[in-house]
Each structure stands twice: as C-alpha cells, then as structure tokens.
Amino acid sequence: MSEPHAAALSARNAEPARPPHVFVRAGGAPDLPPPGLVGGPLAWAQANLFGSALSAALTLASLAFLAWALPDLVRWLLLDAVWSAPDGEACRRPGAGACWAYIGAKLEFFAYGSYPREMTWRVDLTLALGAALAVWLLWPGARRKGLGLALFFGAYPLLALYLLHGLGDYARALLGGIAALTGSATLRDVARNALPLVPTNLWGGIFVSLLVATVGIVVSLPLGVLLALGRRSKAPVARFLCVMLIEIVRGVPLITVLFMANTMLPLFVPAEWSPDRLMRPLIGVALFASVYMAEVVRGGLQAVPKGQYEGAMALGLSWTNMMRLIVLPQALTIVIPGVVNSFIALFKDTTLVAIVGIFDFLRAVDTQRLDPAWAGPTISATGYVFAAAFYFVFCFGMSRYSLMMERRLARGRRH
Amino acid sequence: MFGGAKAMRATALLGAAGRAMGIAAVVLAGAGAAGQALAQDKGGRTLEQVRARGALTCGVNTGLAGFGIPDDKGNWTGLDVDLCRAISAAIFNDPNKVKFVPLTAKDRFTALQSGEIDVLSRNGTWTSSRETDLGLLWAGVNYYDGQGFMVRRKLNVSSAMELSGASICVQQGTTTELNLADFFRSNNMKYEVVAFATSNEAIKAYDSGRCDAYTTDASGLYGERLKLMNADEHVVLPEVISKEPLGPAVRQGDDQWYNVVRWAHFAMLNAEELGVTKANVDDRLKATNPEIRRLLGVEGDFGKGMGLGADWAYRIVKHVGNYGESFNRNVGDGSRLKIRRGLNALWNKGGLQYAPPVR
Fold first, then answer.
1. Cα separation of B336 and B329, whole Å?
2. Structural domain ending residue among the three candidates B201, B236, B271
3. Are residues A367 and B63, on separate chains, in Cβ contact within 8 Å?
4. Is the distance from CB of B152 to CB of B234 less than 8 angstroms?
5. Angle, nearest 10°, between helix axes A206-232 and A279-303?
6. Looking at the structure, do residues B132 and B206 belong to the same domain, yes or no?
7. Among A123, A322, B51, B283, which residue carries the largest CB count within 10 Å?
C-alpha cells in the first residue's frame, strides 16, 4: 500500500479525541512493502548468479562466452545450414554452415549400414519389439514384469536373431530334414518360407551400435550378479574361478581382446570354426561388461549391513532366498548409479568395434564423409555433430532414468 | 601405405595393447604355425570353395573414396571393389555374388592368411617382404600409386622440383614423411616440414594457409582435395616421388586361384586396349579381330585352364566393364576425384598398364 493512502487512513481514524496518557492504537500498523525479492526470476538470479563476487564474475564470464560462441554456433547449425540438396554442391559454397542435407541423404546408411533396403522392416520390427519390451520392464507402474523379464531375456534374443539374421542354408536344410523325418507339413513350410539370410557383413549403422550395447547390457547384468556372488561365495573352487575370470578380463584392455579375436583367433582355428566377425566383438564386449558389472555389484553386496544377512539367516531363509529376497534388492538399489555408469560407458565403448572393421554408427558416419559426391569442408563436422547428438541423447536418457529410479527406490530409506 | 600410417598411429596409441598382443602371439606361436599350415593345405581348392559357397569373399577397405567405399544404399563401389565384382562375374556370371569384408590395415593380411577371405583387394602395396614373409602373392597392379604434392593454383608451381624452400604439411610418423625427406635431400632442396598427428589435421592446416604444399599418396591426395574450401583452387603436381603399386593379393599355394584373380584384371586391361566396352561387348562378339574373338571366347577356350567357362572375359566386360571404364567411373573424370590416368594409362598411351595377350 502506498504512503499517501496510509496517511489518509490514519487521519480518518484519529478523529475521536482520547486522553493523552492512554495509548490506543488508532490505526493499523503501516503496511510493510511486499517481500518483493524472495521469489521470481530476479530473486533467483540474485541468490544463484550474483550471490558473491566470485559468483558474479563467473556469471559474467559465462555470459561473455555464450555471447561469443552462440551467434556463430546458431548461424552454423541453423541459419547458414543447408537443409536440402541433391548432392554436396550447395554445401561446398563458401559460407555454408552445417550440411544437414548430407545427414538426410545418408540417414538410411547411418541407420542400417548395408542391410538390404527392401528388408529393413526386419530391423525396424526388431527394434520396435525391443523398445516395447524395454518400456514394459523400465516403466515403474507396469504389471507382470516377470513375464516381461522372461520374454526379454529368453524369447526376444532368439526372435531378434531370427528376424535380423534369417535362416541360412544349413538351418533351412536341417529344418527340412526334420520335416521330412517327422512328416510335418508346417515345419516344411516354415523351412521353405523362412526369412532369407542377411549375413552379418551387411549389418551396420545405428542398429549394430544398439545391438552391441543391448547384448552387453542384457548379458552383463545377470552374469555380473552371478560373478559377484561367486566371488563372495565360500565355495573355494567357484570363488577361485570367478576371481580369475574377473581379474584376467579386467586386466587387459578391451581393444586387446577385440584385436585378439579378429586377428589372432582366425589363425588358430580353422575358418569354418571361428565365430562370425560380428559375433567375436559381441562376445568380447559382453564378457567385458560382465566383469565390470560384477565389481560394481560386489560393492553393493558389501554395503548391505551384516545385520541384514544375520536377520535373514535367523529367519531360516535358504542362501538363495536370502540373496533373492533380502540382500540383492538392497545391494542393487545401492549400486544403481554405478550400474548406469557402466551402461553409459559400455554404450560409448561400442564404438571400439569399429577398429575391427565393424560398421557401427560412428564408423558409418566416418566412412560416408569421404563419399566424393558429398565431401567438402563442412561434411566431417556435420557428421560428427550428428553422432555426438545421437550418443548424448541416449546417454542423457539413461542418466535421467537412473536418477528417477534412485529417487523411487530410496523412499524406504528417506527420513 | 595408407593402412601403414593408420596402423602406426593406432600402435602408438595402444602401445600396451600391442605389447600384450605380442606376448600372446609368442605364447601361441606354435598354434599359429599350425593354423597357417592348415590354411595352406587348402591350396588348389579356393575356386572350388567359392563355387560351393556360392559367393566370393573379398576383403576391402573400410572406406577409401574411389577405391572401396559403401554408397548411400550400402552397396560397395570403387576401383578395388570392381575387381572383386569382375572375379565374381567371371565365376558366377553375376557381379553381385561377392561378400565384402571391410578390413582395417591391421587385420587385412591375417584375414587373407587364415582363409577368411579369398582375395584381398584393398589398396595394398606390393612389396617383397609381404610376398616372402607373409606368404602372399600379388596378382597384379590395378593402381600405380605414389606420393604426390598438392599446392595452390595461384602459386604457379607446375613441378615438384620448384618447391625449394616451401613449407609442407604432412602426417607424422608415416613413410610419407620419410619419402619427403629423401626427395628433398636427393634433389638438394630446402624445405620446412610441418607434421601433424592425423591426415585430417594436416589437410586442415594446409587449407588454412599454414603450409605451401600438402603431401600424401596421390590416390588420397585427390580425395583430400575435395575437403578443401575451394577444391578447384588447388592442383596436384605431376611428380610422384615414391613407388606404391597397389593391387589384389591372394594366398600362396593355389596357382589356379592366383590365375583367376590375375587374369580378371588382365581381361579388363585387354578389353580396354581392344576397345571392348560394357556397352558394345555384345556387338563385339561378331568382330573379326582375332584378339577380340579370343578374349570374348568366340574362338578357343581360354577359361578352361583356370576352371572357368570360355566366356569368362565376356562376362567381366558385360557386367563390370573394361579397366578404363572402371577407372573413369570410380576415380577418373566420371567421378569427383578426377584423378588423371598418368601411370595408370595403358602402355600404348604412355602409362604402365600392360596385359599379356589372351591366346
């Protein structure tokens, strides 16, 4: 309320005369100014951006940096960017920014590699099924997760293998043979009409990156838990084997394993016996992710108070039930940040398979920027910005999801 | 050569990895020898295996513009790739029965030695040690490469001999750097070397005006040129200061297969020399020139000795074209690389490409 108004109010209330020694409050206390700067953007800025001299200096420096970098960045990424063009000609003219037209033209290759274009629906279907199952499992309120788990870890890998790979001549002949033996007409039809083979040398792009990451994640969590339990178990042989495996695999760089698999393995085993060129890095990555996961989980197991174990034993629970019902749920909740950290690292490590000639997403981007039809001064930068955005979206998504899960799961321990 | 440079860099980065691998290699050397022996036991049967498999397995570069690179649709294209397609055409009458295995510089020879691929057509340089120590054979030279220089057009330099006193951008730790030193020393010229860890950095520095010239293998030089701000303002000088004969390699011990690969290349050369192209090959079947008649299998049966049909060369030209067509389409004037024929012109046009006659 403004001053003149308040004065007028007190003047009106002061009319009846009162003895001077008696204090009677005649009017309301003058209104205080509203607590203007406790909320709102200005107050927030004062508290957080200019709270101290150092803070103010940092704020100003950051603003200056943004003012210096942002205009050029926006110009390069958006204003001067080439959005559609039949080939690299428009992107090569001086002053042209990012060449998004190039991303558009190469998007299919980035997504599928050399996978036959008329059969890319198989990849799409596989990814859609995987995504649906993942949402089912990851959605906090979803029901019947047990069934989802069984589908994701049991049926889905087989189905994905069939969808992506199709049936080779051997599998077809085998099915046909079984059909002939059993006289089953359905089996014969299956053998005849099965999806055609798409050999793994044609696989590539985003879908291979996701494949490597998914295989790593799907294998590493259960295997990692088993290895961690094995390492803490009292059975000497099991413990020794687990420790050996963890320490040996963890003791060599992933790149060494990949090189060994792709340059050494073929020399030691006959060509027919050595696993597929894509299979080798898949096994390597899965093994690697598992031993790192084992150590993360072991940290969680150690953090569970001893009383929990003793309580479980006092209740007469078997070892399996103690682990399944009491210890692991607590241990895994504790290590969520570590687990997600491993997953994010694994997701980015999938780019390492490129050094053994697998066309993962990054490798696909890296190759296509050399295409003479498009090559130009901005092509490499455009490709790498696109790749960075892709990896960031996935890693940031995983990070946010894990934070949400941590908050939900930590409710029991919140005070 | 390219591979060599990359390999060196990777090795430097992964020193520990390399050492670990070395130890493993020593430990398992016995097994390795056994594996190699096994691979060689299969000698004489490669063509049979390819037929039984229904596809040729061909090792190619993971991405080198004009030589071996997948296009938007994921189809492999390039000069080296065309040779694989030619072999496939000769065997199956279909240029697409090829399984391309993209190989890095590190695992390319192992893949060939172990029998994982049938032929390595991946811009590999033919050297004595690779044939004698690695147990491989080069079936020919489908591209005579060598180190060249690129300069700005406005410098008005027409020969590498005029580069005295120039600053030159180069990739560190490669044979390219050593060849450069040799060239300038033997010609008694001064120069300033500006070395970078990767070829990308080197070309960026050259583009920004840090150096007068940029040097790498000529085949790569044309590809790098396209990354520059104004590609047309730069020229590649005619001199080639090193010998890098690039060609397809096969395992030793299977002479029949060696002939198939070698003569697939020769057939493309002969077709160019005789003026037989993809477009006119059917017409040429009626030609009276006996050389054309022998090449296309109208007269005689020259494929038999290799286990192929009489029309093996006809199939190659029909599906892939002759060497000149392949060159033009992938790296020559028909492509953006615009590499001149130079050493790769036919012998009767001032180049080195020479094929023995079919008879």
1. 9
2. B236
3. yes
4. yes
5. 40
6. no
7. A123
What SS3 state is found at A407? helix
CA distance A196 to chain B (A): 15
From residue A237, how far is each of A222, A226, A232, A244 by CA, in Å?
Answer: 20, 14, 12, 11
Of A105, A267, A367, the CB nearest to B32: A267
Confidence of residue B148 (pLDDT cuts 50, 70, 90): very high
Its sign, for the CA torsion B100, B101, B104, B106, is negative
Judgement on whether residues B280 and B178 belong to the same structural domain of the protein = no
- Tallying the residues shown for chain B, one arrives at 359
- Nearest chain B residue to A199, by CA: B99
| Strands, E assignment, chain B | 56-61, 69-70, 76-77, 98-103, 119-125, 136-138, 143-145, 147-152, 166-171, 191-196, 213-217, 234-236, 244-251
Instruction: Give the A:B interface size as CB pairs under 8 Å.
Output: 146
Task: Say how far apart CA A59 and CA A64 lie, in whole Å.
Answer: 9
Separation CA B252–CA B130 (nearest Å): 11
Half-sphere exposure for A14 (CA within 13 Å, toward CB):
7
Closest CA to B72 of A117, A230, A322, A179: A117
pTM, to two decimals: 0.80
- The reply to whether residue A256 touches residue B35, judged by beta carbons under 8 angstroms, is no
How many helices (H) and strands (E) in chain B? Answer: 15, 13
Tell me, yes or no, whether B11 lies in a domain: no
Say whether domain A221-378+390-415 belongs to CATH 1.10.3720.10. Answer: yes
Lowest mean pLDDT: which of A181-195, B108-122, B189-203, B237-251? A181-195
The length of chain A is 415
Q: Where are the alpha helices (DSSP H) in B117-254?
A: 128-132, 175-186, 199-207, 218-225
Q: How far is the alpha carbon of B38 from chain A, nearest alpha carbon, in Å?
A: 7
Among partner residues B72, B107, B200, which is closest to A263 by beta-carbon distance? Answer: B107
Query: Checking phi first, is residue B350 left (phi over 0); if not, alpha (psi -120 to 50) or beta?
Result: left
φ/ψ (deg, to 5) at B114: -80, -5
What is the least distance, in Å, from the CA of B29 to any CA of chain A? 9
How many helices (H) does chain A have, and how many strands (E)? 21, 0
Q: Per the domain annotation, does B354 fall within a domain?
A: no
Nearest neighbour of A268 by CB, restricted to B35, B73, B229: B35
B45 contacts in A (CB within 8 Å)? none
Band (B25; pLDDT cuts 50, 70, 90):
very low
pLDDT digits (tens, 9 = 90+) for B151-173: 999 999 999 999 999 999 998 87
Give residue-wise pLDDT tens across range B54-97.
999 999 998 888 999 999 888 999 999 999 999 999 999 999 99
Nearest Cβ partner for B107 among A274, A357, A379: A357
Residue of A nearest to B115 (CA): A271
Q: Could you state, in order of their start, the residue ranges of all structural domains in chain A?
A: 221-378+390-415
CA distance B56 to B94: 11
| Contact call for residues B67 and B311 (beta carbons, < 8 A) | no
**Contact between chains at B116 and A271 (C-beta distance less than 8 A):** yes
Alpha carbon distance B67, B251 (integer Å)? 21
Closest chain B residue to the Cα of A168, Cα to Cα: B53
